[in-house]
Design brief:
This protein is α/β, with parallel strands linked by helices and 253 residues long. Helix content is 44%, strand content 16%. It has one domain: Alpha-Beta Barrel (TIM Barrel).
């Protein structure tokens, strides 16, 4: 089955409004001719509106880095679906390892946020991944199975049309360490097998699974060239228009 490559830039807590707009304006002409991949940028909340405006008319989509499961209320620091809809984003990252590690995100809250995002009409990048200790003790597949089973609880086959799974080995995020293409492929294959067990082989064959973890221009082609790797969720390399565009073009060129 042919799955369209999706490469998303997670800016994390970087870029002011002016810097974000400048990055997108620099990026637009560099990727204007890329028609065989979806390109997404995910700025900070304060930068979203301006980046959405800057990206209009281009092939760059915009996503948020989180979404609350609640409609409104006493949830300091959270952001609601209505707030994100108002600024015009299309995507939401949910369950990133940094949210799990630093802010108490669990498989249950990932599931709640995912359901809220889907109900509001967003497309979701659902993040999963193991720690270095879990990789070294051989429990990677068990970890991703648990995270996928919890994150996708109550999610239907039709819902999966709007979900991309982002596998990110936690030990490779921002460290410069990268899973070898073979290691990443093995885990992506395992993820697809879990989806097949939950929702059937047809859904599993169709779902896109990104790799996140120090992907850059030098390795994007080999990683995305693997059978079960359908793109990337990019951190550091997405903060430079030149680096991000080179990564995208190398991956799909």
């Amino acid at each position: 089955m042919s799955r369209k490559v999706i490469i998303a830039g997670n800016w994390k807590m970087n870029k002011t409004v002016a810097e974000g707009v400048a990055l997108v304006n620099e990026l637009k002409p560099l990727v204007a001719n890329v028609d065989n991949a979806e390109i997404v940028v995910c700025p900070t909340f304060t930068t979203l509106s301006a980046v959405v405006e800057a990206a209009k008319g281009s092939n760059i989509q915009v996503g948020a880095q989180n979404i609350s499961w609640a409609e409104s209320g006493a949830f300091t620091g959270e952001i609601s679906a209505d707030m994100l809809k108002e600024v015009g984003v299309e995507w939401v990252i949910i369950g990133h390892s940094e949210r799990r590690q630093y802010f108490g995100e669990t498989d249950k809250t990932v599931n709640q946020r995912t359901k809220t995002a889907l109900a509001a009409g967003f497309k979701v990048m659902l993040c999963i991944g193991e720690s270095l200790e879990e990789r070294e003790n051989g429990t990677t597949n068990d970890v991703v199975k648990t995270q996928l089973t919890g994150g996708l609880e109550g999610i239907s086959a039709s819902d999966m049309e709007n979900i991309v799974i982002a596998y990110e080995p936690v030990w490779a995020i921002g460290t410069g360490k990268t899973a070898t293409p073979e290691m990443a492929e093995d885990t992506h294959k395992a993820c697809r097998s879990v989806v097949a067990d939950i929702l059937g082989q047809e859904v599993a064959d169709a779902v896109r699974i990104q790799y996140g973890g120090s992907m850059k221009g030098a390795n994007s082609k080999e990683l995305v060239g693997q059978e079960n790797i359908d793109g990337g969720l990019i951190g550091g390399a997405s903060l430079s228009a030149k680096d991000f565009s080179e990564l995208i073009i190398n991956a799909v060129g």
